[in-house]
Amino acid sequence: MSTRPSKDLETFDNPTPERDYTIRIKVPEFTCLCPKTGQPDFATINIEYIADQKCVELKSLKLYMWSFRDEGAFHEKVTNDMLSDLVNATAPRFMRIKAEFYVRGGIYTTVIAEHRADNWTPPVPVHLP
């Protein structure tokens, strides 16, 4: 196998750092393990962020997501670890991770974690008629 899971998140320079724009990434095939039973947990991970100087490189993100496959962790921890790692790598103006875990025992779990840079003010939304 030519690639392996990795916790290393690569970045590249934001091509338009003077503008607030939203980057949305959807990872529909995320897996990790239940820390209690060892059974697989499946989720769709939605990442939304407004970059400052750095953007996350997608192949490294794919390998990063893969790195959770054999780890046991609660949904809350996985989501917050992702946010911390991505914020540490990219230092965004804003980032939101929404982890939508599939049903297990009749229960769906969604965990949402956010980061806002101290010096960032969100733009006022435009509502068109």
Overall description:
By secondary structure, the chain is of the alpha+beta class. The protein has 2 helices and 6 strands; from the N terminus they run ββββααββ. A 4-stranded antiparallel sheet has the order 2-3-5-6, with helices on one face.
Give structural attributes.
alpha+beta; four-stranded antiparallel beta sheet; two-stranded antiparallel sheet; 2 helices; 6 strands; 129 residues; 39% strand
How would the blueprint of this fold be written?
Elements: E1 11-13, E2 22-33, E3 40-50, E4 54-56, H1 58-66, H2 75-90, E5 94-104, E6 107-116
Low-confidence stretches: none
Query: How many beta-strand elements?
Result: 6
Q: Report the end-to-end length measured between terminal Cα atoms.
A: 53 Å
Structural class per helix/strand content? alpha+beta
Sheet with the most strands? 4 strands, antiparallel
The shape, in one word, is: globular
Helix content bin: 10-25%
Order of helices and strands: EEEEHHEE
Number of helices: 2
Q: What integer value in Å does the Rg equal?
A: 16 Å
Strands of the widest sheet, in order across it, are 2-3-5-6
Roughly what is the average pLDDT, rounded to an integer? 95
Percentage beta strand: 35-45%
